[in-house]
Amino acid sequence: MVRAHIQNLQSIKDTVVEIDGLTVVTGPNNSGKTAIMRALRGLFINAPAGPLVRQGAAYLQVTLTFDDGTEIIWKKGWTKPHQKGGTVNEYYVNGVKLENVGRGVPDEVAALGVREVPASSDRLWPQIAEQFDGTLFLLNKSGSAVAEALSDVERVGKLTKALRLSEKDKRGVSNELKVRQKDVKSLQAEVETFKDLDEVSKTISGFDPVAVQKMYGELKDAFRLRGRFREATGTVKALEGFDASLVPTAESVAAIQKRRAGLLVVRDYRDRWEALGVTVRALADFNSDVVPDPAKVQKIKKLRGLVGSLSERLQAAKAERDLLADFAEATLPDPAKARKIATVRDTVVALRDSYRSALALVAELDEAEENARKESQEADAEVVSALGERGLCPTCHTVHEGGTHASS
Q: Confidence band (pLDDT; 50, 70, 90) for 392?
């Protein structure tokens, strides 16, 4: 399916036509049928704009969108209405403007396969019928033209499909080639900047690394000094015409700083004096007889703290009392019986600890016994290995046989 969006072409101001398979356009006279045919054919032959641009418009525009997503835009006319201003002759393929469009159709558009087909001595349009012919494709042509156009139709269809696929691949490869060509030019320009690198490398290889490092340090110092020199030069230039006599001497600056320090001290005294004056004025009517004895004040402060602590304890006791208000009075046990129970408890705890210690000791003894048994088995194995199946035991001087002592 192909979607055609036609704007400002003859009687058509703005319309959309969908072409799906064999599509027939019908309608009364002057309804725009011929304009649609001219729009489609004009895009594929880059027709002249003069008889096609709608009256009052500057340029026409035809947009074809194919079912594979390919989009072709054709603009033809002038930049201003009534054929004024610069000419407009533009093609866009998938949003990319084609450069250097001339009178003919660009290769990218011709590659879509919508073009004239030679048949005998005639040229035919298989996709778009003649505008004023009134007959279907080939029905008004000679036998030789029909035979040549329809010979091996199936093969032509396959070739057309293959051609479209190859042209699509060709467009992709062409776009990729353009990108890579730009990359090559960019890299060539970058390589050009290193054309004397071999000579520089030979020169550098003859340098002493220590001397180069020293020169590098000196060069950094030189750059730093150059920067300071430029900064100083700028300062000097900014101070051109300045009266040097206005600059105070070091002695006068020291005297001013000394006076400033004294002035700061005086200012501090003044601030303190003013603060004291405010306090004195605030206490002008104060009777000094009402000032309490400091020792008495300290004692009262301690008593107040003690009273506060006792008050908190009292409140806690009251809360505990209220909590236990409904609690029955407990019967205290006989002290002698309680002491006896405590003694028995201590004895039980001691016995429990002794029992746990005995269990730990038994576990250690079991482990020691197991280790001794393993060592004995290992020793017997070593004796067997050393004496063989039968021999004299070096310890008891008896005959040894199969890991056991035989009777002498």
A: low
Distance of CA 134 to the CA centre of its chain: 63
Domain of 25 in residue numbering reads as 2-115
Tokens of 386: 């050393």
Mean pLDDT check: name the lowest of 24-33, 200-209, 247-256, 309-318.
200-209
Backbone φ and ψ of 257, nearest 5°: -65, -40
Residue 67 lies in a domain: yes
* pLDDT 10s digits, 169-184: 888 888 889 888 999 9
Number of domains in the chain: 2
Q: Would you say residue 35 lies in a domain?
A: yes
Among candidate residues 67, 96, 115, the one where a domain is terminated: 115
Surface-to-core class of residue 70, CB atoms within 10 Å of its CB (0-12 exposed, 13-18 middle, 19+ buried): middle
300 within some domain = no
Give every CB contact of residue 383 below 8 A, 6+ residues apart in sequence.
Answer: 393, 400, 403
Tokens of 398: 């008896």
- Interior angle at CA 294, CA 292 and CA 300, nearest 5: 80
User: The domain spanning residue 99 has which CATH number?
Assistant: 3.40.50.300
Q: Dump pLDDT digits (tens) for 308-329.
A: 888 888 888 888 878 777 766 6
Q: What is the pTM of this model?
A: 0.36
b/e 365-387 (16+ beta carbons within 10 angstroms → b): eeeeeeeeeeeeeeeeeebbeeb
Say whether both 108 and 213 belong to one domain.
no
Q: How confident is the model at residue 136 (pLDDT cuts 50, 70, 90)?
A: very low
Contact 6, 12 (CB under 8 A): yes
Q: How far apart are CA 48 and CA 130, in angstroms?
A: 18
Sheet holding 2-9, edge to edge: 12-19, 2-9, 59-66, 71-80, 84-93, 96-97
For 129-172, the DSSP string reads --TTT-S-TTTTS-HHHHHHHHTTHHHHHHHHHHHHHHHHHHHH
Instruction: Identify whether the C-beta of residue 399 lies closer than 8 Å to the C-beta of residue 390.
Output: yes
